[in-house]
Amino acid sequence: MAPTVAAPREVHVLLADGATVSVRPVRPDDLAEVDALYAGMSPENLRLRFFTANRHSAEQSAERVCRPASPGRRALLAEAGGEAVGLVEYERLPGTEHADLALAVADRWHHRGVGTVLLEHAASAARNDGITAFAADALSENHDVLKVFADLGLSVTRRFDGPEVHCLVRLEADETYLSAVEARGRTADVASLQPLLRPRSVVVVGPGRRPGSVGRAVLNNLRLSGFDGRLYAVHPVASAVLGVTTYRSVSDVPHAPDLAVLAVPAAAVPNVAEECGRHGVRALLVLSAGLESEHGRGLLTACRRHGMRLVGPNCLGLANTEDGVRLDATFAADLPSPGTAGVAVQSGGVGIALLTGLSRLGIGVSTFVSLGDKYDVSGNDILQWWETDGRTDLALLHLESFGNARAFSRTARRVTRRIPVLTVDAGRTEVGRRAAASHTAAAATPTMTRRALFRQAGVTSTRGIAELLETAAFLHAQPLPAGRRVAVVSNAGGTGVLAADTVIESGLLVPVLSAELTRRLLGILPGGAAAANPVDTTAAVSEAHLRDCLAELIGSGEVDALIVSLVPTAVATATGDDLTRSVVRTADAQLFPVAVVLPGRTASVCYLTGRNTTVPAYADPQSAAQALAHAADRTEWLARPAGTVADLQAIDRPRAVDVVAEFLSAHPDGGWADPDTCAGLLDCYGIPQVPWEWAHNESDAVSAALRFRDGYGGAVLKAYWPGLVHKSEEHAVRLDLQDDAQVSDAYRDLAMRFHGKLAGVLVQPMARRGVELFAGVVQDAVFGPLVMFGLGGTATEVLADHAARLAPLTDQDVHDLVSAPRCAPLLFGHRGAEPVDLDGLGQLLLRLSRMANDLPHITEADLNPVIARPDGMDIVDVRMRLEPIRPFDPYLRRLR
To answer: Are 397 and 370 in contact (CB under 8 A)?
Structure first.
């Protein structure tokens, strides 16, 4: 039996041209609307759909699809402007996992993506119904529908039968399909953002006549930025504000603007938004703050009803500096200068800080978007805009929350291959996680979850605004280092030592230079210099000495980057400015990563500008080292293969679904699964557990222990009752029982101490010695399944030696998980010891990831300890929590 799956709810989806349609289940009261859809279809369209132009077939179809849905039979309707524009239906074929499929799209909505959207949503619903393929018949001349099937990204086979084509569309959502969905979503997303970021006309609603109002400031910035399109304003009394002609209402504006900027009281926002939609406005920027929940619902409803994209509410505004647009619809004090850095923030204050910092550095902005409360447009949308705008080469993000974290992850992985994406990991936001009792859930902190997302996606995660700007300064101006080897050069030994310390603490290397290179450097530098690394040039270094020293290091091939720390001294033959010019001239001559440290002589970071290059100069060596470390991390991430999700064998998902359904049928509110359920689920995914047997009396325990002792040695007894999670804390485990007497004594002890709640005793063999690890999963409400790995046993929470990655895991993710914990040397062979079974560990993590992805009802899984040895591993104890949650397809296209 399959778990109950709720019917799909109404969602809004972008089409290929950026228009919005709603997709929802057909209801019995939709008969008139479905009839109207068919009645509006041309005879040719009807013939292609029903193989006849007779409208009687359409009438019968309308009556059928409007019947209440049943298991394996659903119909979905696409609507725009209150009318049906498309319909898809499927019904399971008796005795099979296939379903018959039919699709219809209104004539004037052809070639806009309606059919594709409906098929994507039908496929997602069908997978939840246990359907593996759609069977669809079409006339061979119906090239449009055959192309829709072919372009889905799913596996399609065709069989020609006279004038008909029988198509079988397999519904497995593999990487090919997900990539196709992503590409379609990107096209639609970017098209929908055009009215927001490249509007041809803008209206500001609510500009005050007196200085100090938000609306007036935005209107003024639009004027000062030289916006190239038509500019309007709406004011109930004034005839003009700041020289811009005003109208009494949006409806009075002679041409429907692409973008409306709302700076009105919160209570007025829904009505103004509705008026904008009726007048044909295509996008809203809502600056107003303090919207109550009813105002927010009214705002979003108006946007969805009329197909308007929305930035905000409660935001600073947005800007686009490209020629032909020159849009500054913010109330920031200073206009951003044109450039190639994209900035998207949730906090207006953070946005101002970033714009100020970038301006001070001279880094111009391509696009700035203050997302505010993020009702609609999100960081994922803006990333896709930057990916295709042809201008942005550096992306700065500040996100306090994620709407669809897995979709963000896939987008970010793709975008970061092209441009650096930097973010602030502020650690302020709690995700919607239930407090749980397992080791895995205790280890899975919100910060760890976000950092797993950023690491896997190649996003550079910084700890604050200052570090973000310092790193951006390096990545914007300097080439990436080829590796992590750094030469530290200073004109004062003490500052060089401090710089070297921070370099090492940042995860970089300060290698000892070869004897030959050291000899050549000492031949260049003044007497008393040291050249092993760090290189102490002494205070007497001249501009020529320093330039030759740096050139020698760059050409040596022994280091990948330079950090040059310079302080003014009274004995120098060159001034501080001479020395910094020497560094810049060297960087001009050779393309090589260089950062300068000028203690006490600069802001946190500034630029030293040469003819061909710009060198970042930092006030503190830690800032320089951290920026360089982020650059080295990016080098390594770009050099890694993208990773693939393994095609695992011996997986029985249908049986696992039945196991989950049986447990939830007996426990409707969910709970900790019993050992039989846990073992059944592990078996479905080919995860071997140490053998065990139930014992409900002393005799059973002795008999089972004897069988295990014959093959393994000692035996183990574990008490069990529903809700027991941490057996060791309850002293519910007796270990290494060597004979019948010890087993009998242990069973009587457990039965006596836990009398009244004991449901049984598990008997297992005593596992052989090895490295005690743990592996687990937590289902996060926002991020999806998080796979955890690290040091196990009773000390797992005390030592907190854990790593985490979001599922589904690739082979690269598995390597990272196994390598990341501090205990990793024990796994790879410490001090000559033999490595543990790394392939077996990898298989365990991949199968655990697959199980978590397939079965979101498993909200926690805790395998602890997993005892790893060179010849294999033993999974000694397993806990799983199952809950009746609604399945969610994170890759299904829909608006927030």
So the answer is: no
Distance CA 806, CA 209 (A): 52
What is the DSSP-derived secondary structure letter of residue 482?
A: S
| Contact in structure between 597 and 499 (CB atoms under 8 Å) | yes
Distance of alpha carbon 311 from alpha carbon 261, whole angstroms: 10
Q: Do you know the residue count of the chain? A: 896
Q: Tell whether omega for the bond before 28 is within 30 degrees of 0, i.e. cis.
A: no
**Could you give the angle at the alpha carbon of 115 between the alpha carbons of 109 and 119, nearest 5°?**
160
- Please, is 494 exposed, middle or buried when counting C-beta atoms within 10 Å of its C-beta (0-12, 13-18, 19+)? exposed
pLDDT of res. 429 = 41
Q: What are phi and psi of 470, to 5 degrees?
A: -65, -40
Determine the Cα–Cα distance for residues 384 and 365; give it in Å rounded to an integer.
Answer: 17
Structure tokens at 542: 């001249």
The per-residue pLDDT for range 512-523, each reduced to its tens digit, is 999 999 999 999
What one-letter code names the amino acid at 625?
A: A
The DSSP symbol for 763 reads E
For residues 161-177, one letter each, b for 16 or more C-beta atoms within 10 angstroms of the residue's C-beta and e for the rest, the string is: eeeebebbbebebeeeb
CB atoms within 10 A of CB 770: 19
Greatest distance between any 2 Cα atoms in the chain: 101
pTM for this prediction = 0.89
The secondary structure of 224-250, three-state, reads HCCCCCEEEEECCCCCEECCEEEECCH
Q: What is the dihedral of CA 373, 375, 378, 382, to 10 degrees?
A: -100
**Residue 85 · residue 79 · CB < 8 Å:** yes
- Does the pLDDT at position 629 exceed 70? yes
Report CA 321 to chain centroid distance, whole Å: 28
- Contact yes or no for 314/289 (Cβ under 8 A): yes
Share of the chain above pLDDT 70, in %: 95
Query: Are the beta carbons of 156 and 150 closer than 8 angstroms?
Result: yes
pLDDT at 726: 78
**In 478-600, alpha helices (H):** 493-505, 515-524, 543-556, 576-589
- Phi/psi for 599 (5° steps) reads -60, 125
Question: Within 10 Å of residue 7's Cβ, how many Cβ atoms?
Answer: 12
C-alpha dihedral, 332 to 334 to 335 to 336, nearest 10°? -90
- Work out the pLDDT band at 451, boundaries 50, 70, 90: confident
pLDDT at 431: 37
Q: What burial class does residue 640 get, using C-beta atoms within 10 Å of its C-beta: 0-12 exposed, 13-18 middle, 19+ buried?
A: exposed
